[in-house]
Structure formats: structure tokens, C-alpha cells
Amino acid sequence: MKVSVDRIWTSTLLCVLLTLVGSCSTMTKNTYMTGEVVLVGGQYQDKTWDESLVLKRSSWFKELTMYFDVLYAHIDKESPFYRWFSEDEKLSLEECVDIIITSSYAFRPRDISKSMFKLEMAKYGYEAFALNGFERNLRMHPDFARYQMGVYSTHAFCRRGMSSKKIAIQFPGFKEVHLD
Fold first, then answer.
1. Which of 33, 42, 49, 147 is deepest in the core (most CB within 10 A)?
2. What is the rounded distance in angstroms from the CA atom of residue 123 to the CA atom of residue 170?
3. What is the Cα–Cα distance from 17 to 20, expressed in whole angstroms?
4. Tens digit of pLDDT for each residue in 4-55?
5. How far does the chain reach from its first CA to its final CA, in angstroms?
6. Cβ proximity of 104 and 152 under 8 Å
7. Helices (H), strands (E): how many in the chain?
8. Which pLDDT score, from 0 to 100, does residue 143 have?
């Protein structure tokens, strides 16, 4: 019994199309994804370093549209990237037990906004600070354009007291998400 190549090709194409249609039907829900963005090396004035700044990424999607995205990293005073903070920023962050830098993007602020994210962080004792100096240095990093971060805004979140609670972000219509 000989099966024609056309018949095999048609059957394969039909299976692929059914799989695609089936997978698209599951994208009608609000979803959450994680990842990483790595900034390799850095420079501040005449100092350069090879260490990387690894930003964890949390993204909230409604169907196929990213509604909110945050890149974040805990940073300490020994990190070479700490040099990117301006003197005023360093003074503001001096008494922080934990510093988290974030770069965030909101597609439709009426639905999920940066203010909502700040309120969620405040539940865990984190106060938000604008980071003009740090952000200027971040924007000049060669990897900044590669990751298309031009529409992101940068903040620091400072926790002054001790806490053992994990940060849990709860946006309307999404499952609770824990940030490390």
C-alpha cells in the first residue's frame, strides 16, 4: 500500500494547524511569565568593571499583550553598579536594609499601573524613590537599547526595617506573584 506524499503533507499541515488553533484558544487568559535581563559590565567615570547586573523579569500578559513588565534586582553597597547612584540618591538610600532597583513598563496604566506596583511594594515596607542619576547611567549602558528599555522608568525601593515576608504582587485579574 502506497501513501502519497501529498496526503502525508496534508495530514501534517492539518495537525500543525489544529495544534496552533488549540494553543491560541488557551491564550485568552491573563498569564504571567518570568525571565532575566543581564547587563554585562559597566562604567562610571574612569572606572570600568566586568561584573554583570542580573535583573529578574516579571511580565503580566492579557492574552498576547504585555500589560506590565518589571525588571528588578537587589543591589548592595559593594556592587560596582552602586556607583551609578548620584550622591543625593546614596544619601536617600543610606539607611536601607534592602534596596531593590526596578525598571518598569505599563502598557495601559488604567488597568495595571506603576502606582499599583508601588502600592503593592509598600505593603512589604518598601518606599519608592526616583532614580534620575542611576537611570541616566543605565540608559547609557550598551545593553539598554538591546533590551528595548527606552519606555521603562527606573525606581529604587528601600526597606528600612527587617522583614522575613516574601514580596507578593497582586494585580486585578491575575494570580498572586512572588518576587525573589
1. 42
2. 11
3. 5
4. 545 555 555 555 555 555 555 555 589 999 999 999 999 999 999 999 999 9
5. 60
6. yes
7. 5, 8
8. 85
Residue for grid cell 547612584: 85
Q: Go through 5-27 and write b for each residue having 16 or more CB atoms within 10 A of its CB, e for each that does not.
A: eeeeeeeeeeeeeeeeeeeeeee
Mapped onto helix, strand or coil, the DSSP state of residue 73 is strand
CA–CA dist 89, 84 (Å, integer):
9
The residue type found at 93 is: L
Identify residue 106 by its one-letter amino acid code: A
Interacting residues of 29 by C-beta distance below 8 A, sequence separation 6+: 63
- Looking at residue 34, its amino acid is T
52-79 pLDDT tens trace: 999 999 999 999 999 999 999 999 999 9
